[in-house]
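Project standup — Tuesday

K.O.: blocked on the structure for the chain from last sprint. Re-posting the sequence here as requested.
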Amino acid sequence: MRLRKSQTYRAESITLRRSDLGEADRILTLYTREHGKRRAVAKSVRRPQSRLAGHIELFTHAEVFLAVGTNLDVLTQATAIEVFPAIADDLARFARASWAAELVDRLTPEEEADPQLFAHLLETIRLLAGDQGHEPVHLRQFEILALKTLGYRPHLDSCVECGRELEERPNIFSPTAGGVICPSCTPPNAALRISPAALKVMRWMGAQTMGAGSRLRISEELEVELERLHTAYLTEILGGGMRSASLTRSRASAARKNSGLTFGRAPRHRTEEDNGRNH
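H.V.: unblocked you, prediction finished:
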């Protein structure tokens, strides 16, 4: 339902992005369960006495009341439902939550509700805040489920070129073709290989509910491979890198000093089988 100018409405929201406006205001990008992505101005929220500030921090799950404006809605009231201090206090968690939030921001149009995507994002933020040790898997599963929900899922069940069933052997993953290519159809200079283990995990994650990744035990090598595959595909879908890439690189640099782990950087192609299925 399209909202009318000056209409007031209530929504359940997650704060995806924010930027300062003037001396005391802030522009917010909110993803709402009921109305999809909305941009709003929170007036005087940066003043010390503001009662709204703590309820609209990044990634906060809140109940908000807004008035529809010409270019931006106006936030009139907000009450936090869930806050995630563990994310704010940890660079690795903050970087991953930023990546998930930006992915939703970049992939979704304004004013188009998708309750399933909202639920995936909210559960991902909860998991990133509380399920220590499984954060990379949760983020990879969120990417797969978000792409599936929005109709951009990579083709993983057969060769995207010839349609033959994929053998349990290394194949080629082609972001431009939209999925996996068998050795017989592999183009010259194809460099992005996908192992049987990575293919199994990607299929499995797309078939499970968000959070099922807690049951997975994967090697560091496989974790890095999944990250590389997903990053390449997202880069193709989005047509370029993501603003949060700098955060993930900072997180990766810190992680390498401590444990040797790495994290990806930047994340266009809607598959024919998904076209028209979800939107």
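K.O.: great, moving the ticket to review. The beta strands are 8-21, 25-32, 36-42, 61-67, 73-82, 171-174, 179-181, 193-194. The radius of gyration is 20 Å.
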